[in-house]
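REQUEST ID: PR-0412
SUBMITTED BY: lab tech R.K.
PRIORITY: routine
TASK: structure prediction, single protein chain
INPUT:
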Amino acid sequence: MWRLAAHVLQGTKVHTVLQGRRVLAAATPLPCHRRGTARGAHTSNMSTAIHKVEAPDAEHLVRVHWEDGSESRYPCVWLRDNCQCPDCFLSSAKARRLLFEDLDVDIVAKEVTLTDRKKVSITWPDEHTSEYEAEWLKKRCFSEAARAEMREDLFLPERQYWGSDLQLPEIPFEEIMYNDQSAYQWLCTLKKVGIVLLTGAAARQGELVKLGHRIGFLRLTFYGPTWQVQDKADANNVAYTTGKLCFHTDYPVLQHPPGVQFLHCIKQTAAGGESEVVDGFHVSNKLKQQNPQAFQILSSTAVDYTDVGVDYCDFAVQCKQRIIDVDYRGQVVRINYNNATRDTVFDIPAEKVRPFYAALKEFDDLLNSREHKFTYKLKPGDVVTFDNWRVLHGRQSFQVGSEMTRHLEGAYADWDVVMSRLRLLRKRVLNWD
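STATUS: complete
OUTPUT:
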């Protein structure tokens, strides 16, 4: 998967250090490249020369026969919809100009021609002409393998699951701020592993604002663009106390919870206050294996969440979420679990309440099992960055003295912002078109 990156980043070492932390050198091979050709990558290792094209009217398709012996089928309606001419496509915005109301879903090609084995030209019944480069077509092949390859390139779905054996990846804060290769490595690792520790930031407020600018911008919530995790009188959040925090994801009370969380250690207590994390996707898969019925309950039951108070502004938020969110394939895509903000209102029939609690208890027991959770302690200047949809986090209790002994600054970002920056960095680092 990293073969392409290895040509760019050679002679690199990954160092394993004490306390389950893995230091990633600036030129560590990047964990987000697949073999083969990515969208925008050069295609010298695969044949994009076309042997012949044909358009059987009865199939409403254009068949492309490639020099390597493979064949691709392109529906005529899709080809017409994606005409790249200036009348149909605004290149400056990379956006379609063709109105859907003007599209004939039953369209067939009137004439198809091949030029220099590299370009397909189609004349449509209204005499409009469309041209398609061979490389453009090859990347958008409708075969199952080609579509899987494109999904991997666009969304980087590969995951590296972990438990108590996690080797926490580390990258210096200054490197990701000023080195594109290190920043790209950080975001790739964050997407794949779900957690990365940035080290050596200044032990003062404001560093997360800089980090937000590095990726684009931070997510504003009712607690502000950033927020201070410290013991507070009349705390409006359980995090602002000295007590133990059980494993949770942040903000499931929002319809679209923040995708990524940053916690910057400014001051740390001498005793207690250790951080704990667990891979929620890994644990969910374990639950599905050992108790499919419990998994089904947690992935189908809408749980009420509430958050009421005053901070950045006054707020009264309500939401329904499933503890385990799955996609159309049944794959876990988000955990929505925060025991502190789970509402007393529970909008399900009475007979389903106890089975739900039993399922949640089994899930919670797995989260807290020694084989799944990883414990570490932040030092002043550390910034832990993690996938808030996947990684549940907690904190051990600590004692407070006459003055503040522990202070973290927190912030959020959306995955849309993070993935946008990752794709732009990939293009820059690997010189992809």
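NOTES: The chain has a mean pLDDT of 90.
REVIEWED BY: pending
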